[in-house]
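ARCHIVE CARD
Drawer: 12
Card no.: 0347
Subject: one protein chain, sequence and derived structure
Cross-reference: see card 0346
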Amino acid sequence: MLAQRHSDAAAIEVGLLIPLHGSAGIYGPSCELCAQLAAEEVNAEGGVLGRPLRLRVVDASGAPAAVAAKVRALVADGAVDAVVGWHISAIRNAVAPGIAGRVPYVYTALYEGGEHHPGVFLVGETPSRQLLPAMRWLHAEAGVRRWCVVGNDYVWPRGTAAAARLYAPRCNGRICDEVFVPLGSTAFDGVVRRIERHRADAVLMLLVGQDAVEFNRAFARARLDESCRRLSTLMEENTLLASGAESTRGICAAAAYFESLVTPESLDFGRRYARRYGPDAPTLNSPAESCYEGILLLAALARAARGLAVAALCRVADTVRYAGPRGELSMRGQHLDQRVYLAEADALDLGVVAQL
């Protein structure tokens, strides 16, 4: 049990759907702690409509159909009143149809766009707001024209690559090659050789967690980092750390949150996280912080609708405003409207260099 128990009111049971192993498992520990911190803070302020939030961790690793069946069973049994969490789009695509309209589902990950199931509320960035301005920045600042795409073989990388094909000509560039590999891939030497043959200026890296770590190491071993940039819309601090300082030269990342973000809201969030979990806590990063945002968004929606009925939540969604580590936020068309930043790697740090 993660969140504080209140004896005077029935808890709102929130299924926290996060990966605990596999390629995306690198994000799990910090996602859990950030969601826990948000629930504790909401509960300390009286909960939601007088009811405390209580988190139930559900592993989002594994086959999408199996994860979706587990979530459907929890909803059918009344074991969870809402679902919140960071997980890959293949999981969302399996989960959303089965619980749409039954309980609110706050999906916190960046994704490829196009989600419209009733009761699904989206925290994460989409390519038009995240990828397009980052590609424009790399063309303007680094002269990038020739792109290769390397991604995992599922819906988010393929959908984002399709967007990149549209965006590249708008940035005076073109996509020279696309390579998609299974989740859990560890051997990237052949992929790196393909990139080298195309003499790419930059790689759009759409790899999850540990797969990105393995690719970064292979890329640096081939010394491609001397002539070729890497751009990721998922690269974050834990993945950078795992890649090693010798493997991060030339990496850029675009996201709505970085640990290095110097805003009053972000700095305050970092202080609270460190105070709660200590110096050895998992590094803050965008997937984890998005889970904090997801809990805040659920609370704001429920307060505005005065309950958790999906139809009522949908009616009030575009009126919702709340303050979090990303600043003052509002919703538009089921998505958070938010600022996005570009960061560049400096050894094991991601330093914000521009607001996109």
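Annotation on reverse: Residues 286-305 form the longest helix (20 residues). The radius of gyration is 20 Å.
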